[in-house]
Amino acid sequence: MTEWDDRIESWVRRVAPRAIGYAKSLLSRPDRAEDIVQDVFLRLFEHSEYDLVKDGDKLLFRSVTNACLSARLRARELRSLDAGRGDGGTLAEGLSNPGADDPLRVAVTRETLEAVGEELSAMPPMQRAAVELKAMGSSLRDIADALDTSEANAGVLVHRGRKRLKQKLGAMLPGGLQ
């Protein structure tokens, strides 16, 4: 392997888990996330003009965002043809058991996760993506790059998304959301 191959492999190993986690957060079917991320990686590798080590993060997350939004639209169109099936996924379904011994605590945690998942699913896709990226520690600049928007608009999307979560879910949490 060449030095360039080593750098690309290192980059992929560093960003793939975050990209898969991000894709899972955007999809109503988290089981599709790995396939979408793999397809995005392949498309990026096909374009040799990209310097993936330098600019790959923003290209990857922008591409994953677009691919997930497209997949959601296709899934919505298919669901409209099959009205008997539900959405099939909430954030809580993708998370592991809270693991607490206290049944009340387990129930409250599960209900809270389901409520957050439902509220995130109800958000417009760009707003949800911005909130998810911010929750993963991305800066507004990174969010703007991933969503192909201005930094100011990324800030607005995050602010409105958090405000919406606070309004809908603040009363559920002890002490409310600050």
Strand content: under 5%
Termini separation comes to: 51 Å
| Class by alpha and beta content | mainly alpha
- Overall mean pLDDT: 76
Low-confidence stretches: 79-100
Largest beta-sheet characterization: none
- Work out the number of β strands: 0
Task: Evaluate the radius of gyration.
Answer: 18 Å
Query: What is the chain-wise order of helices and strands?
Result: HHHHHHH
Could you walk me through the main structural features you see in this protein, from its secondary elements to its overall organization?
The chain is mainly α and 178 residues long. It has a domain at 1-89. Helix content is 71%, strand content 0%. The protein is built from seven helices and no strands. The chain has helices at 3-26, 33-46, 52-81, 103-122, 125-135, 140-147, 151-169. Helix 2 (33-46) packs across helix 3 (52-81) and helix 4 (103-122) packs across helix 7 (151-169). The longest helix is centred in the middle third of the chain and has 30 residues, at 52-81. The chain is globular, with a radius of gyration of 18 Å. The N and C termini lie far apart (51 Å).
Compile the SSE list and pairings:
Elements: H1 3-26, H2 33-46, H3 52-81, H4 103-122, H5 125-135, H6 140-147, H7 151-169
Helix pairs in contact: 1-2, 1-3, 2-3, 3-6, 4-7, 5-6, 5-7, 6-7
